[in-house]
Amino acid sequence: MDDSVRINLERRLPKQAMALVLAGGRGSRLKQLTDVRCKPAVYFGGHFRIIDFVLSNCMNSGLRKMAVLTQYKSHSLLRHLQRGWNFLKSEMGEFVDLIPAQQRVDENAWYRGTADAVYQSLDIIKAVRPEYIVILAGDHIYKMDYARMLADHALSGAGVTVGCIEVDRKEAKAFGVMAIDDSKRVTSFVEKPADPPAMPGKPDRSLASMGIYIFTADYLYKMLEEDIQMPGSEHDFGKDIIPKAVSQGQVVAHFFEDSCVYNSEKVPAYWRDVGTIDAYWEANIDLTATVPELNLYDRTWPIWTYLEQLPPAKFVHNKVDRRGEAIESSVSAGCIISGSVHNSLLFSNCRIHSYTEIKGAVLLPGVVVGRNARLSKVVVDRGCVIPEGMVVGEDPEEDAKRFYVSEGGVTLITPSMLARLNG
Q1: β-bridge partners, 241
Q2: Which residues pair with 161 in a beta bridge?
């Protein structure tokens, strides 16, 4: 195919598409970190929220018609979107619509599955008159050009295209797993199988769905109308809609590597499901590397967000035993550091008092660490005040009595946990 034809498709198709971001998940695997917020609203990377990545992918791909479907604990998310994503021009056909669960089908039931969430918003979607509908999960970290996937979808003639990525077979139990033929036509699709099928010639790898679907609009409407009438359906894309579309020969696969926005040729395609405390801690700490796999400094593919106006970070005192320092760390605006910070990521407005030692820590906004405290391999939730002299991360058994300790040895500290310690 002529390159000019494809380039024209990549420029034109995003304007004919609408993105639906599914942001209603409970995020229970993040434990107490999602007690007061849904997973897409969880902080990430110094001053972002997780949902900022998928919305920024839409923006940078030229996909400016977006709707965010929410359900559980959505206040923090809605407030963030209202503050940080209100700059689009509606007169230019650009918008981020916020669509809470509306009980349109049954006044006694909220969304019963991902497909039901879209079905209950069909009147809103149809009013926009998109030719293509891009369905996205709002809780993953990656950079991707959806325009390339849209072009592949249009050229394939299929009803739906599924974004996919190779994963370790042991990890594939948490994903939809598919098999494809030589033309990338999906021949089978199983949601979260107990024994994931391996890829041909790769016994330790499986081809997993990323939760990214592009539908031709009319085909999606038809599938949803049929599904809502189907007895026993869970009204879920991975469990019901996609397997049925596979049986009709209407599904093709799109490899993430073909549309990933890379840091450089030397790093692999970056995609993370930060759905556990261990994965969340690791992905944040990875950003402190000299050359991290995820480049947040790339001005050609910026990550948009809401930023409070704050003064720069400050490091105070310069004595042998009392020196504010941060080594191999990322420190956000508004922070004042008087202690020692190593291999850590600090969000905005943190206060690190004198004689503290912080190693491998992810501190969310507004955390205060008292004098002589020592923190290692921790995630500290927003607004926590760590008492003077508290030690966390050196005695797992003692930590588990007070806080949540993950399988990987990461300690999560929240304000409610600290409040219980104080009686």
Answers
A1: none
A2: 214, 252
10 Å Cβ neighbour count for 168?
Answer: 11
How confident is the model over 46-56, as pLDDT tens digits? 999 999 999 99
Say if residue 93 carries a ligand binding annotation.
no
- Write down which residue in 240, 272, 288 finishes a domain: 288
Residue 31 assigned to a binding site: no
State the total domains in the chain.
Answer: 2
Identify whether the C-beta of residue 69 lies closer than 8 Å to the C-beta of residue 21. yes
Please give the torsion angle defined by the CA atoms of residues 65, 70, 76 and 82, in that order, rounded to the nearest 10 degrees: 30
Q: Which two tokens stand for residue 50?
A: 């997780």
Q: In CATH, what number is assigned to the domain containing residue 356?
A: 2.160.10.10
Contact 411, 405 (CB under 8 A): yes
Q: Measuring CA to CA, which residue among 217, 216, 64, 48 is closest to residue 140?
A: 48
Q: What is the pLDDT of residues 191-207, one digit of tens each?
A: 999 999 999 889 999 99
Co-location of 339 and 389 in the same domain: yes
296 falls within a domain:
no
Structural domain including 324 reads: 314-422
Which helix (H) or strand (E) segment holds residue 397: the answer is helix 396-402
Same domain for 17 and 161, yes or no, is: yes
Query: What residue type is 82 in one-letter code?
Result: Q
Residue 146, annotated as binding a ligand: no
- Please check whether residues 33 and 76 belong to one and the same domain: yes
306 marked as part of a ligand binding site: no
Buried b (16+ CB within 10 A) or exposed e, 263-291: beeeeebbbbbbbbbbbbbebbbebbeee
- Does 207 share its domain with 94? yes
Angle at 133 between CA 127 and CA 135, to 5 degrees: 120
Q: Give the strand pairing for 340-342 and 345-346.
A: unpaired
List Cβ neighbours of 94 (8 Å cut-off, separation of 6 or more). Answer: 64, 65, 88
Q: What is the pLDDT of residues 383-399, one digit of tens each?
A: 999 999 999 999 999 99
What is the CATH classification number for the domain harbouring 148? 3.90.550.10
Q: Residue 333: how many CB atoms within 10 A of its CB?
A: 17
Residue 111 annotated in ligand binding: yes
Q: What are the tens digits of pLDDT across the range 348-384?
A: 999 999 999 999 999 999 999 999 999 999 999 999 9
